C-alpha cells in the first residue's frame, strides 16, 4: 500500500510540475535562474530516454516503459524484500516510470526542466520522474547491500 501511495504522489507531483513548466516557460528560451551558478529552470522537450538516447523512437520507448512497469509490478516480490526501504524504492520507481510514460503518450516527448550546473558545465536537464527513478535505484542498491551484509537487521517495518 505504501508503494502505491508513494507512486501516486510522484506521478501527481511530476505531472503538475511538467504542466506548469509547459504553460509558464518558453521551450528553448532563456533559462530562469533560481540559484546563480548552480540551478536554473528550463523547458526542454526530450524525445528520447536518458540523455536523449533513442530520440524519436517513441513507440519503442512507450513499449519499453510499459513493459518494465508491468514487470516491476508483477514480479517485485521476487527481487524486493518486504522492508520499508524496498517498498519506498518500488513506489519511487513505479511513479517515475509512469510519470514519464504519461508524457510520452500524452505529448510525444518527456518534459525536462531541472537544470543543474557549475559554471559552464551542465548536467543534462531532468524532471521529477527522473529524480524518483534515480533515487529509487540508489536506495535499492544501497539497501540490498545493507540487507545482504546485515541479515539480522532485515526488519519488515
List keywords for this structure.
157 residues; alpha+beta; four-stranded antiparallel sheet; 4 helices; 4 strands; 57% helix; globular
Account of the protein in words:
This protein has one domain (2-153). Helix 1 (2-24) packs parallel to helix 3 (84-106), helix 2 packs antiparallel against helix 3 and helix 3 runs antiparallel to helix 4 (128-149). The protein has helices at residues 2-24, 58-79, 84-106, 128-149, and strands spanning 32-35, 39-46, 110-118, 121-122. It is 57% helix and 15% strand. The protein is globular. The chain has a four-stranded antiparallel beta sheet with strand order 1-2-3-4. The chain starts with a helix and ends in an 8-residue tail after the last helix. The chain has four helices and four strands. The longest helix has 23 residues, at 2-24. With 157 residues, the chain is α+β, with helices and mostly antiparallel strands. The mean pLDDT is 87. Strand 1 and strand 2 (39-46) form a beta hairpin.
Outline of the structure:
It is built from four helices and four strands; from the N terminus they run H-E-E-H-H-E-E-H. The protein has 157 residues and is α+β, with helices and mostly antiparallel strands.
Amino acid at each position: 500500500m505504501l508503494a502505491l501511495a508513494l507512486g501516486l504522489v510522484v506521478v501527481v507531483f511530476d505531472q503538475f510540475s511538467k504542466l506548469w513548466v509547459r504553460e509558464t516557460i518558453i521551450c528553448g528560451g532563456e533559462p530562469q535562474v533560481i540559484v546563480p551558478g548552480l540551478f536554473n529552470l528550463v523547458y526542454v522537450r526530450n524525445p528520447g530516454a536518458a540523455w536523449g538516447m533513442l530520440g524519436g523512437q517513441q513507440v519503442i520507448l512507450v513499449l519499453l516503459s510499459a513493459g518494465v512497469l508491468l514487470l516491476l509490478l508483477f514480479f517485485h516480490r521476487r527481487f524486493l524484500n518486504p522492508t520499508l526501504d524496498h517498498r519506498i524504492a518500488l513506489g519511487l520507481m513505479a511513479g517515475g516510470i509512469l510519470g514519464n510514460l504519461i508524457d510520452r503518450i500524452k505529448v510525444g516527448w518527456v518534459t525536462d526542466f531541472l537544470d543543474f550546473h557549475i559554471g559552464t558545465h551542465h548536467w543534462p536537464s531532468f524532471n521529477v520522474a527522473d529524480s524518483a527513478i534515480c533515487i529509487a535505484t540508489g536506495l535499492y542498491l544501497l539497501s540490498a547491500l545493507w540487507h545482504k551484509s546485515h541479515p539480522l537487521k532485515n526488519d519488515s517495518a
